[in-house]
Structure formats: structure tokens, C-alpha cells
């Protein structure tokens, strides 16, 4: 029988082990034996990188970037925005990423963790990402361009200056999330139109309502482009009612005619005026996710979902006020909605109502259903 040893572990298992370790621990693990050291320097280990900038010691990731950056396919950055040092290291990392002699990067994700500092505009972060999205250096050999960009959890205000270079230099883009955590959206509909007409392979788009227009929806319905699979629209206080015409039924009919498998997520933030919601809802929209976070009576909305969205709704999130009528309407909606997999209602429901929902839909995967008042925040329950 072959003697068991660390040296006998296959490469793919070692790569899986090392991929979970912080960079300084990876170095230590790479010193276990020659085999592990060989794997530590393998391009396969550095294809998909999750980087955290939570303290000064995380500056060591810059050394890894210079040594192994040409192998990166996926970069996921988590920056604790509370400390200016973390933000600076993050910007330095992105700037160096943009200047690599060879570029294979396909997936780029940045998230902020921690509390948002007062009066922090994020200009230096905006400029660093803009540098990455822009044209590569003259001597850079571009093997791959970006296909997946997720900036949905950054509390900085985006502008056209950030995303126009993205469209011009990354025509193979398939996923784009620009629903930032800031209340301010400055990405114009003309900029979004440029992205859509240039990046014709885009199948998942997540934007603010402010950025939409009639021309944008018409471009998404173009039969020459790859069919859109998911469109997420977030409505906040900066959205202008002057754009209300984009929600006319004719545009949604044209959009769904070409994009037969289209799923739409509608998010109404806590600063979105309640009066705007009925104006934006249309029966023709294939809504799969509906989130309403502004703490107003929503009985009419549950009825509307029950009448028009019961065939497509998969996730429903309501921040509202309790009432016996709400319990009744929810039961009717749950009964009709066979695709429903998540239900989150942030108000107290009758105990019998919660029990009935679970009986009707035993296949629910995540819920937030309370029959007694509890301190906030209410954490979802995974079933």
C-alpha cells in the first residue's frame, strides 16, 4: 500500500485548500514541501482571487498582484471603507491591475464593508476603476476583456465618465451591475444606451430607474443582440417622473417578444415615493423579484401581484403595515404563485397565516415571517 503523505495529495485538492487562505498563510503553506510550493506558483491557483483590504497588513496583496496578476481571471475585492488606509491600498491594487503587461481578467467585483465615512465621495475609487475600464497600456497584451462587472455595493456616485470607457473597451460584457449603494445616480440614459448598443452580448443588466429611457428599452428589444435574461431596476428618490413613458406597455411587449426568457427585478427603495409605485407597475412586465422597502400600506400591490405576476414571481419582499386584509391577500398570492421560493414580510402576521403559508408552499427556500413582534433587524430563515 502506498504510504500516505502530504506530497501524494493531487494538485487540484491542494489548489482548493490554498484558495481559501489569506495570502500570508498561502506563503506558509507553500513552504510545506516542494510539491506544495510548485502548486503555490501554479497559474491555476491565481485564476480566481478574493482579496480583502481590512488592515494595513493586506498591502501584501500588491506583491502577489505584481507576481501573479497576469494569471487573474476573476478578482473580487472587499474593502473596509471605514479606514482611509484600506481605501488607499484598494485604489493602488486596482491601478496596478490596470497596468499589468498581460490582461486575462474577465470578472471584476468590488464591495464595500463597514460603515460609510461621513462626506466620503469616493472620487479616488471612481478614478481607479475608470483607469481599469479604460484603454490598456500601449505594451499590454490583452488576452481577455471584461465579461462580468459588479459594482452594486459601492457607496459612491457613478457617472458616465466611468462606464463609457467600459463599453468602448469591453465589447464581450455579459453582466453589469451599477446599482450602487448611494442615493445619487448620475449615469445618463445616453451612457446606458451606448453600453447596450456596444455590448450586444449583455444578458444580465442591473441599473437605476433614472438611467432608463424609451431608447434604452427599444435597444434591448433589438433582435440582432443576444436575448436579455435578467433586468433589475432600482427606483430611488433621484429618479425623475419625466421618464415615466419608458414603462408604457408597448415597450415591455416589444422587449418580452424578443427576450422570451426575460426575468425582471423591481426594487423600490425606502426613499421612493409611494405614489410612484402604481405608475411604474405594468401587467406586461415579467416580474420575478419584487422588493418594496418604504414602509407604507401595500395591500393594492399584493392584489396586483396576485392578478398579474403570479406566473412569474419568485421572490417577494415587503416592508409594510399589518392588517387582516394583508394576511388574506398574501394567502391568495401564495396559493397562486407556484414559482415562489422566497417570501419576506416585515410586519407581524397572524399565527394561522404563517402556518397556512408554510402548508401551501412547503418548498419555500428562505422566509421572513413573524407572528410575534421582535426587535429589528429580522434575519431571514433558510429552510
How much β-strand is present in the residues? Answer: 15-25%
- The outline comes out as globular
- How many whole angstroms does the radius of gyration measure? 24 Å
Strand order of the largest sheet: 1-2-4-6-7-8-9-10-11-12-13-14-15
Strand pairing plus helix content: what structural class?
Answer: alpha/beta
Strand segment tally: 15
Counted by DSSP, the helix tally is 14
| Straight-line N-to-C gap | 44 Å
The ordered string of helix (H) and strand (E) elements is HHHEHEHEEHEEHEHEHEHEHEHEHEHEE
Low-pLDDT windows of residues: 240-245
Mean pLDDT, to the nearest integer, reads 89
- Note the main sheet: 13 strands, mixed
Share of helix, binned: 25-40%
Please, could you describe this protein's structure?
This protein is of the alpha/beta class and 383 residues long. It contains 14 helices and 15 strands. The strands form two sheets. The chain has a 13-stranded mixed sheet. A two-stranded parallel sheet has the order 3-5. Helix 12 (299-308) links the parallel strand 11 and strand 12 (315-318). Helix 2 (23-30) packs antiparallel against helix 3 (34-40) and helix 13 packs parallel to helix 14 (351-360). The chain is globular, with a radius of gyration of 24 Å. The relative contact order is 0.05.
